[in-house]
TrEMBL record:
Signal peptide (residue range): none
Taxonomic source organism: Azospirillum brasilense
Chain segments annotated as coiled-coil in the UniProt record: none
Highest taxon above the source species: Bacteria
InterPro entries xref list: ActD
Keywords: Membrane, Plasmid, Transmembrane, Transmembrane helix
Transmembrane segments: 57-79, 99-122
Pfam families: ActD
Record's protein name: DUF3341 domain-containing protein
Amino acid sequence: MPRPLPLYGLMAEFDTPDQLLAAVKQARADGYRRLDAYTPMPVSGMGEALGTNTSPIAWAALAGGVFGGGGGLFMEWYANVVSYPLNIGGRPEAAWPAFVLPAFELTVLGATIFAALAMLALNRLPRLNHPVFEAPRFSAAEVDRFFLCIEAADPHFRPERTRAFLEACGAVSVSEVPG
């Protein structure tokens, strides 16, 4: 007999974006924090309702830029002043104008690498398949249906209580998402 898969969460289907938005707001007000919404089009106010308006990717890119640019400047200064000083035509060893272009390039490279790594980490990638794709009728999220998934990892998640909550929010159907 095959063992049942662990539960990833509960998926509620809604008819309209307004119903979904109201359900997300109710879920956040009820204390749920690990939830996500799936819609066929952008819904105004959904990011604020989900609490996902601020992304740490910009901060990761800034940190990468500072690290890359600062590291580049230090590397150039160290090579030209400490490690291998050369007197070229009487110019100063720390010729900052000559350091700007490589430092700029390293700033862009550092910001790009840090942003890409932050994006992969935040999206929990690489992952070949997301559990929500196994939910019944989830393919309708590409066409005209609106879905709210509350993850089982949420501290407030109780299967029966969460199902009753989603049904009380006006969900057309509530289904289990295997993990």
